[in-house]
C-alpha cells in the first residue's frame, strides 16, 4: 500500500469515528438562498460567510462532527480573524471536504431523468481543492422513482459518472464520498424503494470496480429505504431499519469502511430516530453514520434568524442536534432527549 492510499484510508476511518458524523454544509448558492429566505434573510456573500463562520466556530462541534462538506465558495472563505475555514475546521479536529459535482442536467432522450454534471476539468479542480485544504470529496447522483423510472440507462449513466469521479478523487489523494440518492418524492412503496436502491447500489459498485477504485478509501452516502412522501403506507422506524440493512448487506461490499446516510426530506427527528433504529442491529460490516445537511442545520437557522445577537443560541442548537445524532450512532437515542435538549 502506498503512503497516499494509507492516508486516504486513515481519513475514511476518521470520518466514521465512533459517535461522530459529517455536517453537510455544501449547499449551492441558489439552495442557500432558499434556506435563508425561509428565515427572512437575504442571501449575500457576506451573509453566507457569516452563517458558515457561525457553524464552523461552534465550540465542542468536534465532539460529534468528524468532517464538514464545503461548497466551492465556502472553501475559499475566511473567518473574521483571517483564518481560512478549512484551517479552522482542521484545528478543531474536523476533516474539511468539498462538493465537486456541478449539479444535475437532463439526461438526453429520457424525460424526467437527470445525470450529474461536472466531470470536465475535474482533475484540475481536485488538485486546487487539495491545495485549499480538502481531504475528502463528494459527488451526488439523483434518481427518481416513477412510472418506468429510473431506467437502466439513467442508473448506468449516473453509476459511471460516480465511478469516474471517485477514481479522480483518489488520484488526487481525496477520499470520495459516493452519493447515489434515490429520492423520497412520489407515491412508491417501501418495497419499491428497496428494489430500486438495491439496483442502483449494485450498478455503482460494479462501475467502481471497473474503474479500480479502492473501496477501503471510500464512503457511501445513500438514502434510507423509505416509502414515497405521498404514499399512504409509511413504515415505522424499525421497518425502515430492517429494509435498509437488508438492501445494504446485499449490495455494499464489506470493504467499504462506512455508510453515512443522507437525511433527504426527513425532519430532524425522523432522520435521527431512523439512524438510531439502524444502529440497534449490530453487528454490521461497516460503520453506520450520518452526513446530514438540513437535519442538522434546520434548528440552527431558526435560532439564528440572521441576528448576531442569536449567535450563541444558534451554536447551542447545532451542538444539541449533533449530540443527538451522536447518540443515534450508538443506538442510544431516545425521543425524550428532544425535549431535554430543547
Give your account of this protein's structure.
This protein has 342 residues and is of the alpha/beta class. The chain has one domain (12-341): TIM Barrel (Alpha-Beta Barrel), CATH 3.20.20.70. The protein is 46% helix and 15% strand. The protein has 13 helices and 10 strands. It has helices at residues 3-15, 29-37, 45-56, 72-75, 85-91, 122-131, 152-171, 190-210, 237-251, 268-278, 294-304, 311-329, 336-341, and strands at residues 21-25, 65-70, 95-99, 104-106, 114-116, 136-143, 175-182, 219-220, 258-261, 287-292. An 8-stranded parallel sheet has the order 8-7-6-3-2-1-10-9. Strands 4-5 form a two-stranded antiparallel ribbon. A hairpin with a 7-residue loop joins strand 4 (104-106) and strand 5. Helix 9 (237-251) crosses helix 10 (268-278) and helix 11 (294-304) runs antiparallel to helix 12. It is globular and about 50 Å long. Its EC number is 4.1.2.13. This is Probable fructose-bisphosphate aldolase class 1. It comes from Nocardioides agariphilus. It catalyses: beta-D-fructose 1,6-bisphosphate = D-glyceraldehyde 3-phosphate + dihydroxyacetone phosphate. It is an enzyme of class 4 (lyase).
The biggest sheet, with number of strands, parallel, antiparallel or mixed sense and barrel status, is:
8 strands, parallel
Radius of gyration: 19 Å
Number of domains: 1
CATH-derived architecture = Alpha-Beta Barrel
Approximately how much helix is present in the residues? 40-55%
The topology string of helices and strands comes to: HEHHEHHEEEHEHEHEHEHEHHH
CATH topology value: TIM Barrel
CATH level-four homologous superfamily name: Aldolase class I
What best-fitting shape do the alpha-carbon axes yield?
A: globular
Mean residue pLDDT: 97
Please give the number of β-strands: 10
The CATH class, by name, is Alpha Beta
The termini sit apart by 47 Å
Strand order of the largest sheet: 8-7-6-3-2-1-10-9
The secondary-structure class comes to: alpha/beta
The number of helical runs is 13
Family: Belongs to the class I fructose-bisphosphate aldolase family.
Protein name: Probable fructose-bisphosphate aldolase class 1
EC number: 4.1.2.13
InterPro entries: Aldolase_TIM, FBA_I
Amino acid at each position: 500500500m502506498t503512503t497516499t492510499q494509507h492516508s486516504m484510508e486513515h481519513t475514511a476511518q476518521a470520518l466514521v469515528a465512533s459517535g461522530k458524523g459529517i455536517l453537510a454544509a455544501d449547499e449551492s448558492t441558489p439552495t442557500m438562498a432558499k434556506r435563508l429566505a425561509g428565515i427572512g434573510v437575504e442571501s449575500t456573500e457576506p451573509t453566507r460567510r457569516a452563517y458558515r463562520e457561525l457553524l464552523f466556530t461552534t465550540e465542542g462541534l468536534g465532539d460529534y462532527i468528524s468532517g464538514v462538506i464545503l461548497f466551492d465558495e465556502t472553501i475559499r472563505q475566511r473567518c473574521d480573524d483571517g483564518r481560512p475555514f478549512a484551517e479552522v475546521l482542521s484545528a478543531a479536529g474536523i476533516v474539511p471536504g468539498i462538493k465537486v459535482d456541478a449539479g444535475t442536467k437532463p439526461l438526453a432522450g429520457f424525460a424526467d431523468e437527470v445525470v450529474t454534471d461536472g466531470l470536465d476539468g475535474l482533475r484540475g479542480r481536485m488538485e486546487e481543492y487539495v491545495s485549499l485544504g480538502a481531504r475528502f470529496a463528494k459527488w451526488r447522483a439523483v434518481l427518481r422513482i416513477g412510472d418506468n423510472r429510473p431506467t437502466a440507462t439513467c442508473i448506468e449513466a449516473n453509476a459511471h459518472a460516480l465511478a469516474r469521479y471517485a477514481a479522480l478523487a483518489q488520484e488526487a489523494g481525496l477520499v470520495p464520498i459516493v452519493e447515489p440518492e434515490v429520492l423520497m418524492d412520489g407515491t412508491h412503496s417501501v418495497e419499491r424503494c428497496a428494489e430500486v436502491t438495491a439496483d442502483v447500489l449494485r450498478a455503482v459498485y460494479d462501475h467502481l470496480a471497473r474503474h479500480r477504485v479502492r473501496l477501503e478509501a471510500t464512503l457511501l452516502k445513500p438514502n434510507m429505504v423509505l416509502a414515497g412522501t405521498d404514499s399512504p403506507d409509511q413504515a415505522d422506524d424499525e421497518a425502515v431499519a430492517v429494509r435498509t440493512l437488508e438492501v445494504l448487506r446485499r449490495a455494499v461490499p464489506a470493504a467499504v469502511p462506512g455508510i453515512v446516510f443522507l437525511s433527504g426530506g426527513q425532519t430532524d427527528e425522523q432522520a435521527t430516530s431512523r439512524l438510531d433504529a439502524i444502529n440497534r442491529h449490530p453487528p454490521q460490516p461497516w460503520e453506520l453514520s450520518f452526513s446530514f445537511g438540513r437535519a442538522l442545520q434546520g434548528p440552527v437557522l431558526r435560532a439564528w434568524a440572521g441576528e448576531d445577537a442569536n449567535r450563541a443560541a444558534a451554536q447551542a442548537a447545532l451542538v444539541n442536534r449533533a449530540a443527538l445524532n451522536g447518540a443515534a450512532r450508538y443506538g442510544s437515542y431516545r425521543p425524550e432527549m428532544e425535549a431535554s435538549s430543547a
